[in-house]
């Protein structure tokens, strides 16, 4: 367990940040995403696909997002469509906040219902584009996430222990400064979420990025590890503090 931070009385207090668990690194084999190729892109084609109950998507190597990508990686970039019903079912079972930190097997078949497999592998969703008014999923972005591949991932933070926090029981407010942390992760060690235990926090106590214990292979991508994730602030303190990297 990670220790420390100061309390309102300026003495040290122990705070608990839950340890990483290997269960958070599993690929979700229960859902194998089924996809078919799409030969071209464009708003008209995308609209047609959505009318047919499919969502336009793309899968590629994350390295292609870099300034000087390796051209050889482009060979595994695929324009695809996936079934809207299946994606909605996955979002309901995995829970939307953790969709983009969960790996899934992907199978690209020659056509809808076809047994001919064109490409397969493990992928990580990195973006869900939705219509601002309706919330409808417009398209999805996946990256290849085979074991051993290092990826940059925003991992959601889940706070627990609020019902036991001394500071909250005294009427303090939990200021959740960060909702996620970005790591460079080997694909097989991507945590679905990070649990942060605030049950020991008193007024003015905080938990910083460096206090979070994760798998040793994960590298925190932050300029300042001392940045707070959360802090218990007194009700009378007015506006909550905001922190920018």
TrEMBL record:
InterPro entries referenced in this protein's UniProt entry, alphabetically:
Rbsml_bL25/Gln-tRNA_synth_N, Ribosomal_bL25/Gln-tRNA_synth, Ribosomal_bL25_b-dom, Ribosomal_bL25_C, Ribosomal_L25_dom, Ribosomal_uL5_bac-type
Quote the Gene3D superfamilies the UniProt record gives.
Ribosomal protein L25, beta domain (2.170.120.20), Ribosomal Protein L25, Chain P (2.40.240.10)
Gene Ontology terms describing biological process = translation
Protein's UniProt keywords contain Heme: no
Any idea which UniProt keywords this protein has?
Answer: Ribonucleoprotein, Ribosomal protein
Q: Which GO terms describe its molecular function?
A: 5S rRNA binding; structural constituent of ribosome
Q: Which residues form the Large ribosomal subunit protein bL25 beta domain?
A: 151-235
Would I find Chloroplast among this entry's keywords?
no
Cellular component, GO annotation: cytosolic large ribosomal subunit
Q: What is this protein called?
A: Large ribosomal subunit protein bL25 beta domain-containing protein
- Which species is the source of this protein? Canavalia gladiata
Q: What is the lineage of its organism?
A: Eukaryota, Viridiplantae, Streptophyta, Embryophyta, Tracheophyta
């Amino acid at each position: 367990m990670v220790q420390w931070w100061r309390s309102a009385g300026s003495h040290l207090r122990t705070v608990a940040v839950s340890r990483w668990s290997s269960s958070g690194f599993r690929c979700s084999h229960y859902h194998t995403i089924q996809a078919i190729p799409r030969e071209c892109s464009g708003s008209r084609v995308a609209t047609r696909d959505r009318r047919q109950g499919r969502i336009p998507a793309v899968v590629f190597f994350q390295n292609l997002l870099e300034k000087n990508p390796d051209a050889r990686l482009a060979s595994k970039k695929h324009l695809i469509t996936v079934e809207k019903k299946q994606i909605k079912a996955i979002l309901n079972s995995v829970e939307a906040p953790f969709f983009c930190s969960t790996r899934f097997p992907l199978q690209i078949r020659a056509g809808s219902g076809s047994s001919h497999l064109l490409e397969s592998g493990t992928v990580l969703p990195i973006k869900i584009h939705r219509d601002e008014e309706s919330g409808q999923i417009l398209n999805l972005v996946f990256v290849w996430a085979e074991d051993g591949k290092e990826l940059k991932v925003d991992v959601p933070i889940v706070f627990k222990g609020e019902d036991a926090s001394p500071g909250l029981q005294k009427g303090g407010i939990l200021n959740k400064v960060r909702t996620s942390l970005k790591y460079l992760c080997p694909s097989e060690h991507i945590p679905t979420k990070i649990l942060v235990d605030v049950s020991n926090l008193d007024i003015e106590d905080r938990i910083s990025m460096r206090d979070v214990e994760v798998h040793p292979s994960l590298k925190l991508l932050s300029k300042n590890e001392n940045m707070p994730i959360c802090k218990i602030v007194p009700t009378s303190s007015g506006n909550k503090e905001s922190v920018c990297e």
